[in-house]
Amino acid sequence: MLAVTAHDHVPPGPVAVLANPTAGRGRHRGLLPGILERLAAAGRPVELLRARTPEEAEAACHAAVTGGAGALVAVGGDGTMHRALQAVAGTDVPFGPVPAGTGNDFAVDTGFPADPTAAVEVITAALAAGRARPVDLARLSRPGEADRWFGAVLAAGFDAIVNERANRMRWPRGPRRYDLAIVVELARLRPRRYRLVLDGVAQEVDAVLVAVGNTASYGGGMRICPDADPHDGLLDVVVGGRFDRRTLMRVKPQIYRGTHVTHPLARVYRARTVELSAEGITTYADGERSLDLPVTVTAVPAALRLLR
Question: What span, in angstroms and rounded, lies between the C-alpha atoms of 87 and 92?
Fold first, then answer.
């Protein structure tokens, strides 16, 4: 891993920009020309990456980084950021997140303004000054699979199960599909048996909610891991135990404030390495479908350089 400091220079090369026009249901689409113009004011060429699918977006980011880009900027929500992170993690190419999605947790939790125009100003100023600041990422591993990176939170409990259900549904469209998936999975709610190995110390727990956080929030401001700090070299693990349906629905709104961790059935752990296993769970990292359990999550200090 590269050793980086807050004063490392931005390498030469153009600024590659990944933009998701459908992020935030398209409400920020008209901002893109102004964003590109503002970034160009930092004195570097700006290249807009072309991609029609998330997979193409990730491939385009990798190609830009290996092709000599001096920086990568992503315009979108957490899913867009997640795709871009795969290309810049562990490199000296700095990253600028412009929050323009329905969920902008990674950008906001790492200190960028929630307003996309204001975030671009921060990024442009950092580019002009040659300034990049280190921040931790989490590396996700599973035997036989390529490693993945995430910046915010890995969901491996009820929320991941709901996402998996919603992704399998063809009706209804839009947010109602997710709402219906919640209803279906609440009816099927049961604690799952998880095996956790935290820095080599193993335990088994029956749980409904399991989240591993590099930062505090997921799902557009839900502070599932409220004390997670992306500069401490550690992961926060929040486990919600044998919640029944009524208790879970009563606790769920508290996640926005981060007060759910005070519930008697909740536990918070902190570790550098987390091994997590359970039957029949597909994880979601930064809101994106990721690896099936079992997985190993490792905190990687200063894995990313942010244009701040």
Answer: 11
* Residue 292 DSSP one-character state: E
Please tell me whether the peptide bond between 172 and the residue prior to it is cis, using omega within 30 degrees of 0. Answer: yes
pLDDT digits over 176-224, tens only?
777 888 888 888 899 999 999 999 999 999 999 999 999 999 999 999 9
Contact status, residue 214 vs residue 137, Cβ threshold 8 Å: yes
- Taking CA atoms, 113 is separated from 105, 108, 121, 250, in Å, by 11, 6, 10, 31
Q: Whole-structure pTM over 0.85, yes or no?
A: yes
Q: What residues are paired with 289 via a beta bridge?
A: 284
- Cβ neighbours around 201 below 10 Å, total: 9
Sign of the Cα pseudo-torsion (246, 250, 251, 253, in order)? positive
Distance from C-alpha of 235 to C-alpha of 215, rounded to nearest angstrom:
8
Sign, CA dihedral 295-301-304-308, equals: positive
Centroid of chain to Cα 73: 15
CA 250 to chain CA centroid, nearest Å:
26
Give the distance, in angstroms, between the CA of residue 251 and the centroid of all CA atoms in the same chain: 23
Q: How many CB atoms lie within 10 A of CB 289?
A: 15
- Please state, in angstroms and rounded to a whole number, the distance separating the CA atoms of residues 35 and 164: 34
Residue appearing with tokens 């964003």: 35
Greatest pairwise CA separation for the chain in angstroms: 57
Give residue 81's region: left, alpha or beta (phi > 0; psi -120 to 50).
alpha
CB atoms near residue 71 (< 10 Å):
28
* CB-based contact 69:16 (threshold 8 Å): yes
Specify the 3-state DSSP secondary structure of 18.
strand
